[in-house]
Specification:
It is built from three helices and no strands.
Length: about 90
Amino acid sequence: QTNGMVARFNGRIEDVLQSHRFHSGEDLEQTILRYVHLYNSQLPQSALKARTPIDALKDWQCQRPELFRKRVYNHAGCDTKALPYFELEHNPE
């Protein structure tokens, strides 16, 4: 299921790249960052029981807090740097 989600995400990015003309590298970067934000925070995924990736991570953090070092959060808007929209770190202890 995870591989299918990644393949769909990559396919959607490919569609965006093929259907838009970008004026600069910055324009391309901002478009991709906006899509990543949309995908993670607003598009429910059937593999995640109709939840968004952010919502699924928040639920997982409630169930298994020992696996997380930082709280899962949703950025208010698009960032200017290519940062992940959620932070998940496995705690090996």
